[in-house]
Amino acid sequence: MTTRRGGEATEGNREATAAGGLAAYLAVRRGTFELDVGLVVPRGQVVALLGPNGAGKTTVLHALAGLLRLTDGSVTLRGRVLDDPGRGTFVPPEGRDLGMVFQDYLLFPHLSALDNVAFGLRARGVGRGAARQTAQVWLERVGVLEHAGSRPGQLSGGQAQRVALARALATDPGLVLLDEPLAALDASTRLEVRGELGRHLREFGGSALMVTHDPLDAMVVADRLVVLEGGEVVQDGSPTEVARAPRTEYVARLVGLNLHRGRGKGSVVRLEAGGQLHVADTLEGEVLVAYPPTSVTLHRQHPEGSARNVWQGRVAGLEQHAHTVRAQVSAPDRPHVLADVTPAAVAELDLRLGAAVWLSFKATDTHVYPG
Ligand SMILES: Nc1ncnc2c1ncn2[C@@H]1O[C@H](COP(=O)(O)OP(=O)(O)OP(=O)(O)O)[C@@H](O)[C@H]1O
């Protein structure tokens, strides 16, 4: 084990052990892919793990669950070492103090909802009566007690999801792992379950880690977002921090902002992709500049007015987003810019792929922060 890795793990361990949570340093090699992630989740905290396809989210879950062995690093939960290849420690999945709500981790079809929830407790040696009693409490807590006697086949998606959550939490695990727990639900059920999920995960008494592709699920359910790209953590912060100051193009798209990298000097930022921006905050050196697509206006002629950032490009993409149209404007030696316009403006400006347009936005609509 390298010193750096050992050092990080020890520091994380100390923090999370004090709070009874999860401290992990995960190094996993799978063919050419390398995961290299430090993760501390105190008890009572819900972390959403986000990232593009192939970023390593499932690898993290599987490594924590013991379904995949670490190449290097360690996993400590509630002060107990679960995995540490350097010391030859490995606790198999069934010996870990975990609850799982995986997309493919289905309820047992032949058992009632009550027996599904009681199953995990029975497997941990709890007597039949006590297990069923605890299961009942949990079904009530997640709001599906009236379906206690139903088999999974008789439950709706939302009800089955609640039973799966009750099953995962009933054993009082130190950590619950969730893999896209809301993905299979229809829009209105999702809205309802999304609101409750965060509360249950914060209140059950352990740490929670949820993989999701949906930024809204992450923002509403989680206290903290951890974003992975290429097997590494590229951003870690509260939903508000991440939404306000994305650090990569992927995160910027996720939270719906334009993001450019550049070098600040006074109130001007010279952009890496070419050109320069006028900004309101002055920051010297490597910076990131973010601004919302709603602040960008498109014109057919060179615009009049006070906006300081103006250049010409061509429409390179048009996408319908609820009640607006998101246009991508590209120009040689300039960064791509997203602009939200109304369908009426699309018609009025005769916006179509390849059309020449001027874009403009104000210096005061930009947010500049260290890059
Ligand atoms: N069995 C395997 N053998 C070798 N490489 C693998 C294996 N499974 C996954 N990988 C590689 O590991 C990387 C991370 O995969 P992982 O499934 O963890 O990503 P993910 O973030 O969960 O992606 P998605 O959002 O698509 O589910 C990918 O590049 C993938 O090609």
> CATH fold name of the largest domain, please?
Rossmann fold
Distance between the termini: 31 Å
**Biggest sheet layout:** 6 strands, mixed
Query: What is the 3D shape?
Result: elongated
What is the count of structural domains? 2
Q: How many beta strands in the DSSP annotation?
A: 21
CATH superfamily of the largest domain, by name, is P-loop containing nucleotide triphosphate hydrolases
Regarding CATH, which class of the largest domain?
Alpha Beta
How helix-rich are the residues, as a percent range? 25-40%
Structural class category: alpha+beta
Number of helices: 10
Overall mean pLDDT: 91
Bound small molecules, by name, code or SMILES, are: adenosine-5'-triphosphate
Structure description:
Keywords: ATP-binding, Cell membrane, Ion transport, Iron, Iron transport, Membrane, Molybdenum, Nucleotide-binding, Transport. GO terms for molecular function: ATP binding. It comes from Ornithinimicrobium cryptoxanthini. Pfam families: ABC_tran, TOBE. This is ATP-binding cassette domain-containing protein. The protein is of the alpha+beta class and 371 residues long. The chain has two domains: 167 residues, Rossmann fold (3-Layer(aba) Sandwich); 113 residues, RNA polymerase II/Efflux pump adaptor protein, barrel-sandwich hybrid domain (OB fold (Dihydrolipoamide Acetyltransferase, E2P), Beta Barrel), CATH 2.40.50.100. 29% of the residues lie in helices and 33% in strands. It has ten helices and 21 strands. The strands form four sheets. Strands 7-8-9-3-10-11 form a six-stranded mixed beta sheet, sandwiched between helices. A five-stranded antiparallel beta sheet has the order 2-1-4-5-6, with helices on both faces. A five-stranded antiparallel beta sheet has the order 14-13-12-15-21. The chain is elongated and about 75 Å long. The relative contact order is 0.10. The N terminus is likely disordered. The structure holds adenosine-5'-triphosphate (ATP). Adenosine-5'-triphosphate (ATP) binds next to helix 2.
